[in-house]
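We read letters as residues; the fold follows as tokens. Both lines appear below.
***
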Amino acid sequence: MDLQGEQVSRVLTFVGCLLTPAMAGAQQPLQFNVPYSCQDGYTRVITRCEKNARGGEVCFFREEQNGQLITERYMVRGQMDGWLAMCKAPAAQPAAAPRPATQAVAPPQAPVGRPGQPLNPPYLAGMPSPEAIRQKIQGSTPVDTLARQVTVLNRLTRIIERMRMAPERGYNLTPDEQQLSNAYTITAYQMSQAYTKSATPDAAKTFQQMLARYEGDQALYDQMMALLSTATLADYRRVDQGASQQAQTRIDQQRREAEQARALPATPTPGAPTMPNDPGRVEMRRCLELGGSEAECLGKGLTTGFIDFVGGAPAKLLNTAMKTLSPPGVRIGGAFAGPTGLTLSFDNAAANLSSCGKLEPDSRNYTVTKRGNQLQVEIANTPNPLVVLLGQNNVFTGPAMHPITGQVIVGYRTMWVEQRRVSDNSVVPGSGHEERVPIYEERTVNCGFASLRATEFARSETSVIGAFSEILGGQADPAAQRSGTTTAPAGPRMGGAYAGTGGFKVEFRSTAAILDCGQAHVMTPYDVQNTVDRLVVTVRNGKVPLALTLRADGALEGSGTVDVAGRLVTGITDAGATTFVPHTERCAVSTLAATK
């Protein structure tokens, strides 16, 4: 068995132990700092137990194999009897009382490279250990020292998160990265808890305020970066610079698109009044012409203008949040559930897996491939992707059991949060409050995908502006003003934008397609049919449906011409109502290629 398979086997065995029904009667007594020999080949050493903020008991233990530390964990005391029943402690070792919480405890260890097995990725070798941080980060008082050290530990975990964006690797954490991240997080948690449990409420509040202040302290940041080796620092700056350049490229592209929008005429109707062509108003008019509510479209126009005004990183964040266009090709919509409650929910961007054991719900990338009259859906997962098939009966079938890797909540840390004024960044009096932030750990569990049936419709996208318009009493999506475009049957859908040489364009959303021909545009429902030899998309364009066939190269094939009957904004009445004029244009339909 290879190393990865061995790790998966160990995790599955361990999770199986956790799911074993608890033994009847009282909890088993614990022995501290003695090796428990377990049936999965690993040795576990319980170091201590302590009360958490909710009055429960949390225990910390190490996992070792062949004398080498594998990882450090902690879990609720009540969940430990399952694996204790599968492990054996030395018979001569009597049970010992837990050590007081105030006693010094060695922090979780950072991963260590072995001969012929360097750390993966290599930059980890130049990251400081938790113990090095406790030695080198010092303050003016013991509490100030503690606040600085906890802040550095928390910020180092974010450096590991940033390194996920290296172009030569995937976004998932490696086992070594996860171990180091856990070492930083658990050490910070232990240190904070040890202080706040013995401190007065006012002192604990002051400590949380110090943590918030040090989060933005440049001098402490520089001191932290000095702890990184030269090679690690160079690698981090390379990844950070690349990610920033990628963001800037997107911003530049948006500005070019805005300039192109300014150059477009407001209306092709002869004799019609000239209308302003700034990006915000162009976006607002298009939204209204597609059937959007005034609240929705006003929000789009204001946001587009604001993005064009501010530029930079804020513009990038807003555009990312508002982005609705999905990858081109076949997608899936709606939710599908199995008899145990396990659910796969799809939109055009991602698949969401929930109710898989104790794993937290999460979004995953997916691809769709035609396999005769079935659609093969491959969902991102480690160690192996999850593959399920959608048949013509609209039922997903897949493996009876498949190992799924995700995140579970293993604890919480408390942070002090304050609101700040935009004008001068000063703290809003009385806004300070505590927030509990979960601590995650990667786990692998077995889940069944033998039969998943449709339980929810596909729904139209909800954007930031959509949510804003709902607050104002408007519709959440322009599609809401068009009958039949807010929902669609669960099953195959389409995504992306396509364009032909004759000026005809189609943009697919989860529940509707937007047709563009010259200055005419309309939003309308569509259907997807997967037969043995082809996949046909039928756009319900008025009384004359438009049929498009998806080719093997990803293009859409059509024929003839299409009439797009839309409307154009002409003005606003004295009563504040928007006025329109019908507008129809005809375009040739041939081969439509996917656009960026």
In short: Residues 230-263 form the longest helix (34 residues). Confidence is low (pLDDT under 50) at residues 1-26, 92-105, 463-483. The radius of gyration is 29 Å.
